[in-house]
Structures are given as structure tokens and as C-alpha cells.
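Example for reference:
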Amino acid sequence: MLKLGHSRDPDSRLNHQLIADDTVQGAVRRVLPMPNGLDAQRAERRLHVIIRNTLPIAVVPHEVYDGALRVKSEIYYPAASELIHDLLDATARRYAA
């Protein structure tokens, strides 16, 4: 499963705030520097809308990861990986200008 989200400290967020079960392993796969937290939140919300509208079958139902992760939404199946990376590439270009 994939989690798309923003954090000032991604490793800490993953290991201390997201993973609820010691048997679950995770890794930060990509970090995209953003100018500030507000821009990061706006970009994240925009990407989630695009993913849900473009590839709705990639959204993992909460029941699948309930108890393993401390989130209620915004978890995707690996099939969304290419789309997510494409969106992150576009976001990086947008904020690089």
C-alpha cells in the first residue's frame, strides 16, 4: 500500500504516527521539498482529488488497513504508484519555477 501525504519530518511521521502495528513495515519512497506547509497541504489535497477521480479503484478501503495504520483515508494500492509519481513530478516542476 502507498500513503501520499505531507510532513515536516517524513521519517518520524511514518514510524511514530502512521504505523500502528509493530508487524507493519514501511519506508519513505519519495520526498518532495515544498516552499511551506500551506503549499504542501494545498498540493496534497489537489493530488488526492486527481487520484480519486482518475483511478478510483486504487483507493484502499479503510477496513483493509484498520488497526495497522493510524489514518482513515488516502491509502492507495500499488497500481497508483505510476500516477502518483507522475503527479509528484508535475508538482515539483510547478514549485521549481
User: Anything to note?
Assistant: The first helix runs from residue 10 to 18. The beta strands are 2-3, 75-76.
